[in-house]
Each structure stands twice: as structure tokens, then as C-alpha cells.
Design brief:
The protein is mostly helical. Helix content is 40%, strand content 8%.
Length: 101
């Protein structure tokens, strides 16, 4: 069910979902962490090419975050994305924000 809460995609939440809900073993700025974060979207059909053209100038972790955000956006468009919290509640500072993945 759609909510009126502002939505955000948090890449690490999306990567964790792709990992079956398990915490990732390596930080995203390390080579093992980047290899893992590259393989997780690939397992869901989102394969990044080895050569990224102009995007090769962007830090690898930023490219991977953008890719997994696209994966999450696709799930949102299909109506199958998860959300945290499941039922957003506003707080004293304004509307609740929900994370989608």
C-alpha cells in the first residue's frame, strides 16, 4: 500500500536485501566489499560492464551505490519493494521518512 511518507533508497539496505538479509562481510570501500557489491546485483540480473566510459572517473563504491539504487527503483516501480519501517509514523520533527529497497 502506498504511503505519503517521503521515500529514500539506502544502498546498504538494498545490498543487504540482495544478500538475503545477511550483513555484508566487507566495507564498501575495500576491494572485497566492492567485489561483493558488484556480484549481488549481477545475481539479480543487473550486470555492470567492465568499462563504464565517463563513469570510470567516479569512485567505484558510488557507481555500485547508483546501480543498487536503480535496482531498488525498479522494485518500487513494480510494487514489490520492501520498506523500513513497514508502517511509517510521523515524528515531532515532521513527516516520517521510509527507506525503500
Amino acid at each position: 500500500m502506498p504511503s505519503d511518507a517521503p521515500e529514500e533508497v539506502h544502498p546498504e539496505v538494498s545490498f543487504r536485501e540482495l544478500a538475503g538479509g545477511a550483513p555484508l562481510a566487507h566495507a564498501k570501500k575495500t576491494r572485497p566489499g566492492q567485489n561483493l557489491r558488484r556480484s549481488l546485483p549481477a545475481g539479480a540480473g543487473l550486470v555492470l560492464p567492465d568499462e563504464l566510459g565517463e563513469a570510470d572517473r567516479v569512485p567505484a563504491d558510488d557507481v555500485l551505490d547508483a546501480a543498487v539504487a536503480a535496482w531498488s527503483a525498479h522494485r518500487i516501480a513494480l510494487g514489490i519493494a520492501g520498506r523500513i519501517p513497514e508502517v511509517p509514523e510521523p515524528d515531532a520533527d515532521g513527516p516520517a521518512v521510509e527507506i525503500r529497497y
